[in-house]
Amino acid sequence: MTTFMKRPTPANRPRKPRRKGISPWVPNQHGAWAMLISPAVLGLISGLVMFATTGAPASRLIVLLAVLVAWFFGYFAFFAFGLAARARNPRRRARYLRPVYAYGAVSVLGISVALLLQPGLIWWAIPFAPLVVIAVGETIRGRSRSTLSGVSTTVASALLFPALTSVGSASGEVGVTAWVSMVFLAVYFSGTIPFVKSMIRERDNPRYLAGSITYHAVAVLIIWVMTLVVGVGWVAGLLMVATLLVALFRAMYIPMAARQGTEWSARRLGMAEIPVLLLGCAAVLAAVITTAG
């Protein structure tokens, strides 16, 4: 006896699960989290060390928290704004704008509390404001993933380190070691942008790869000279140069290995970057310890 299987009709055919869209409430740029969190945590540690060693008033602890709230929620609002700027559907744009307003309000509240308790922080608007304008301008022009936009956000993130250091200081001053650490963080994180692009968007562009390698080589030279000229401690200086040497090696080796057939997914790239990031964090912590000592 032959049985015939009934062909599924459109009515009873199993439906494929719909892919969920990007949530405007949770940033999905996983590579940005390291840039977002690392300088903030390092700056918090530096600020707490300054607080403990300079006798700053207790209100500075609230300011440290307020600045961190302003930073993180400000980034969340910026991420949602980028989605809203690219959205063509008015209904979707309106949905994306909700977290912009919500996160933006919390960020403004954090800024207000910080300025109320420590008005001198207003001077940090001078370096931060142009970077924010560049990032927002690139987003409005539809170039949120441009190199210029990426560098502006990484430099803003690195600026958080001396800003938090100044919050913890009783005098509000920032030592030269904090500025060297800021430059190191900005140089390192900015270098991840051409490196990642050479592996993904510009993987077939040999000139871009050459530019990425050149950037990392120059970065090693700059930080090496800075650590020699400025006294950040030999341990911190050695770790900073070592971090950028490792970054230079991966900027050469990984793209070339990928061009020879080795598969490098975004996840694998992220995992490979963790040791470099930890080495860089150790360098900054060594500089903080040197300053405290």
From TrEMBL:
The chain crosses the membrane at residues 61-84, 96-115, 121-140, 147-164, 176-196, 208-226, 232-253, 274-292. The keyword Membrane applies. Residues 1-23 are annotated as: Disordered. This is YwiC-like protein. Keywords: Membrane, Transmembrane, Transmembrane helix. The keyword Membrane applies. It comes from Corynebacterium efficiens (strain DSM 44549 / YS-314 / AJ 12310 / JCM 11189 / NBRC 100395). InterPro entries: YwiC. It holds the Pfam family YwiC.
